[in-house]
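Methods: holo model generation. Sequences were used as deposited, without trimming of termini or removal of tags, and paired with ligand SMILES retrieved from the corresponding compound records. Each pair was processed once, and we did not select among multiple samples. The sequence and adenosine-5'-triphosphate SMILES for this entry were:
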Amino acid sequence: MTDTILEVTDIYRIFPPSTVPALDGVSFSVQRGECLVISGANGSGKSVLMHLIANLDRCDRGSITIARDAQGREETVGLVFQDAQAQILGDTVLEDVLFGPENRGKNAQEAEEIARTCICRVGLAGKEQLPARSLSGGEKRRLAVAGILAIDPSIIIFDEPYANLDWDGVVGINRVIRDLKKEGRTILILTHELEKVLALAHRLIVLVSGKIVYNGAPDTALSEAPLKSWGIRSPIGSYRQASDLLWMDET
Ligand SMILES: Nc1ncnc2c1ncn2[C@@H]1O[C@H](COP(=O)(O)OP(=O)(O)OP(=O)(O)O)[C@@H](O)[C@H]1O
Ligand SMILES: [Mg+2]
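and the model returned the structure below.
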């Protein structure tokens, strides 16, 4: 039996004066508890699609349906922005993360408990009173994740979660994602850095120029799909020496 939490049907989005749509006929569904990686080159439409799902933008055609919970309320969607700076609302780290639980009607004590737990979860414990805008790029990204965790959404979207993160930061985010998966949360991860996360994904979707070109098993994509022609580097390969370590076109 399927338990669809999100249904995207034939989405079309164009930004005039551009005559090329950012999204063109995109359809897919997501099951409750699924962990999906959505990949694609720069400009392929990943962030536009997620802004639509998070209800921050409207599509020109098509529809997005989000399931309802047992109380009949539409399931909540939390989006960790690609631009972490844009997500900062509070003066201090703690105030920033408090916004979510306070807006959800938690009392001051509950809200602070939730905020402190989420700050700890992303490895920012001890920085609660620092000015949020003074954090490093990677720390701001962790803060953005904490802010979304504190809202406790059913569907969590991570838009390029690894940008600016060091090894420890990537591992930290992946631990959070792994734990959210265990809790049965629905997770969408937008990235072209497949090597950092694909093992956590139940399914991979690839966008090229606003259209879905792949929607299926991660393993099949790696063995059979023309990832390179879609602007995605296949992570399968071997590094043996320094001269192998170069991100450069072969031509
Ligand atoms: N508000 C906007 N106004 C005009 N064009 C836009 C707007 N938002 C997105 N676009 C265009 O839509 C296309 C898809 O952009 P989008 O941000 O979804 O790409 P992306 O796949 O997330 O890329 P990246 O990997 O660089 O984050 C791009 O060509 C972009 O210029
Ligand atoms: Mg993007």
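The two ends are 49 Å apart (CA to CA).
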